[in-house]
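Reproducibility note. Readers wishing to regenerate the assembly model reported in the main text can use the exact inputs given here. Chain order matters: entities are listed in the order in which they were concatenated for prediction.
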Amino acid sequence: MRARIRIGCVVALASISALTMTGCSTDTAGNGMPDVVATTNVWGSIAAAVAGPDAKVTSLISDPSADPHSFELGASQAADLSDADLIVYNGGGYDPYVDQVLESSHGIARVNAFDLRTDKSDNNEHVWFDYGTVVSVVRGIATALSDKDPAHASGYQERAKQFETDLQSIQDDVKKITVAHAHTPITETEPVPHYLVQAANLDDVTPLEFQKAIEDGNDPSPASTAAFRDLLDHKRAKVLIYNIQAQDNSTEALRKIATAAGVHVVEITETLPKGKSYLDWQRDTVARLAAALS
Ligand SMILES: [Zn+2]
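Running the prediction on these inputs yields the following structure tokens for the assembly.
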């Protein structure tokens, strides 16, 4: 893959010799706008909020039924990445193909969300559920776009500020959960909204062994699955947070047990549902979590 990307750059440079100093990150759309490429539509939506009408944003992963962890980069997507002016990506092993592109390309600005995470001792990669990290990403995008396109810097900065204000109102909703429901036991099929659960001060009582297996990409042991079932069956958690983007027979069975026992199920996804912005999606997720806890 790396070789093919390198060839792509060489071809681009050979055809436009005047651009040799700026490498293959130079605008190829020909409209003078910075090209931003995000890996998932989560980061794409955040980038688009800052970009506004002044930069073009492309997301590689938008399919709400696919698991981004198992995404494989296609040829045209590799070309999009190596032609970008700015790449906004998750990092932390979530989208490792980006680092390969960056290694063989020059002049592409980057914002790596995981590297900007608030708590460096926490290695959960789903950092878009950590609003402090998202603020750092938004500021990073505004700075990178202002550098690439100084004529529109004030627009980038203003939209970044507006985004932070909107995000603050969601953080206020999370605070209300903390006030009303701190230390309520909850459980999750996958620790995707880990940072949200922490911010809301809820107690994740998912069997540790089950959670570790999921995080490592392994099948949970029968014993840890049985412990999970038992916990739901006895309603020792008030809510089951359920990732509909990574479900199989075992998670569906857990969901059935939860529903039968009267444990509220809160569906979550790893990428944006169709037609929703990041802010809509987070506001909605927090509202559904609050409703399930009430
Ligand atoms: Zn995940």
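We highlight two features of this model. DSSP finds eleven helices and eight strands in the chain. The longest strand covers residues 35-40.
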